[in-house]
Amino acid sequence: xxxxxxxxxxxxxxxxxxxxxxxxxxxxxxxxxxxxxxxxxxxxxxxxxxxxxxxxxxxxxxxxxxxxxxxxxxxxxxxxxxxxxxxxxxxxxxxxxxxxxxxxxxxxxxxxxxxxxxxxxxxxxxxxxxxxxxxxxxxxxxxxxxxxxxx
Length: 151
Prior knowledge:
Trna Endonuclease, Chain: A, domain 1; alpha+beta; single chain; 35% helix
């Protein structure tokens, strides 16, 4: 199994792993960050990921990020009614290399955790991709925000 972390805090027993793994942080007010850094255009992917975290945090305390054995990271692993869900966030999937990287990380995590369905949230794409016994739901973030907690 890969590494399971909760809001940037490594849950493994290894002190060394806790020291090596970077912490992830999310902001309550993205506008304040933009003001302080004078970065108004910013990294839209990071802004989108921050938005997803805030929405998940409103609905559950069971939020982690997941790092596969191969070192690939999935943005969110969360629990809803005792069931695990993996969520990858990517502003734009039009670049084939970006899509391949996000898809690979999600599929590896799904295999390691025994989850058959994964979710990729993006700005405006919508489709379902099937591979072997795994299903990747690519959903626009606005649609996900208007739906129940998970798909």
